[in-house]
């Protein structure tokens, strides 16, 4: 197994009048869970289709499991489990029949493996696919991606349509896959969906990579929401300009602000007055993610971290 599962070097894809992907350089290590985050239309599915040679790049290169997605497509696809963002199969088949057929295309998967995954996801294998809800059709897609225990799982919006309990089951499956040495590349537009399982995340916006980092480091960059209530009104001028303070507002006896860094200067300034209440909340990662993909974060970092 290669130490790098996915390596993209200045990968671009143009769709005529619009660009789907622009100069993307990225590395995904073998054995990690990698969250690929961005709003709808950011370029996530375009990246995945390039990895699988479903479309061809305008420029740049991609290596997947050490192979060329175009020249080695047949060998490569045997080693990958893929769930498309628009998973579609013949609706006339029963779920079990469909999965048995797909397993046969892969050279065979033990029936007990399919049955165990279906039971875990509460999927009725006797139900015809056309009768299934979107969430239950998504379960069929998840079983076919996981059933042959591939080296690399490429999952495009995998929890679409799943209820919260099944979403947690899916995250448990991802955790188990990592423990078994598999690599997971998982696209999403929901930060909280990957926060619990991802080793690293990349955020993409308008076809360009904004940042690549660990979840822990992203959290370290988040700021504090602070609300302080005083016994009497305080002058805003005493807090304006303090290190790390932004979005300062004083409404009567209540002061609110954001603090990026140590809260010590604000606490010392507040101590000059009688404080009756204080609340400080860490910025939610979903909010931080939103800051990145709306373009309000710091200078973008093209993070092909090793």
UniProtKB/TrEMBL annotation:
**Which stretches are annotated as coiled coil?**
none
Report the subcellular localization: Cell membrane
Q: Which CDD domains match?
A: ABC_DR_subfamily_A
Q: Which family does it belong to?
A: Belongs to the ABC transporter superfamily.
Tell me one GO molecular function of this protein. ATP binding
Q: Which residues form the ABC transporter domain?
A: 6-231
Q: What is the name listed in the Swiss-Prot or TrEMBL entry for this protein?
A: ABC transporter ATP-binding protein
- List the InterPro entries hit by this protein, alphabetically: AAA+_ATPase (IPR003593), ABC_transporter-like_ATP-bd (IPR003439), ABC_transporter-like_CS (IPR017871), ABC_transporter_ATP-binding (IPR050763), P-loop_NTPase (IPR027417)
Q: How does it sit in the membrane?
A: Peripheral membrane protein
Instruction: Identify the Pfam families for this entry.
Output: ABC_tran
List the keywords (alphabetical). Antibiotic resistance, ATP-binding, Nucleotide-binding, Transport
